[in-house]
C-alpha cells in the first residue's frame, strides 16, 4: 500500500511503540519526515527500532516507559520538549489484552488493566497538553471491544469504551487548538491477538465482510490520515478499521 504524507518538522509522541501497530506507525511517520519520541516497556525493542530507522539518532528519541507511571510520563514529556521543542501529534497506543472471565477475575487483574489502558492514557493526555503545539492532533486507540464487548475481556472492553467517551469529551474541550479522534481496530494480526487468532481465527474471518484479518499497516495509515491536513475538519470521530466486522456483527 502506498500512501503519501508529509510530516516534516512535526513531532509524534507514541506509546506502545514496540507493538505491531506501533512499529508500523513509527515506520510511516519516520518515512514522512516526522521526529518521533518512542516509548515502551521493551527497551531492547525500542533500541532495535531506532537503530533500524535512524542510527544517528537525529529524529528518533526513545525511552523505556511504564504507561501507568506518572514519573515516567513526566520524564518522557521532558524528553520530547528537550529534543524537539514540543509535540504535534500524540498517540497513546500502549495497552494490554489479558483474558479472564468476570466470575474468576481478581480485583488486582481488573485494576491492572484499568491502570494501563485507561488511567495511563489520561495521565499522558493531561500532562502533554502544555507542550502540544497549536494545530496538533491526538489519536486515541479504542477497539471493536469498546463498542460490542468482548467475551473474557470485560476489563479491556470497559477501558476501550471509556476511551471512546474520553475522545469525544476532549474534542469539546480542546478544539479548535487540538483535534482529537480515535481508531477502533478490529482483528489485526499482531502479537497481542495471537491467542485469539489461534482459537477463533477462522470464525472471525468468516464473519468479516472483507474476508480477512487486518494488518497493522492498515491501522497506521488511518492514524496518519487523522494527523494530516487531509483530516483538518475531522474531530470527535471514532474510525472503525475492522473490515466490516462491526457492521456485520
From TrEMBL:
Residues 10-181 form the Ketoreductase domain. It comes from the Bacteria. Keywords: Oxidoreductase. InterPro entries: KR_dom, NAD(P)-bd_dom_sf, SDR_fam. Gene3D superfamilies: NAD(P)-binding Rossmann-like Domain (3.40.50.720). The keyword Cytoplasm does not apply. Belongs to the short-chain dehydrogenases/reductases (SDR) family. PANTHER family: 3-OXOACYL-[ACYL-CARRIER-PROTEIN] REDUCTASE, SHORT-CHAIN DEHYDROGENASES/REDUCTASES FAMILY MEMBER. This is 3-oxoacyl-[acyl-carrier-protein] reductase. It comes from Arthrobacter humicola. The lineage of its organism: Bacteria, Bacillati, Actinomycetota, Actinomycetes, Micrococcales.
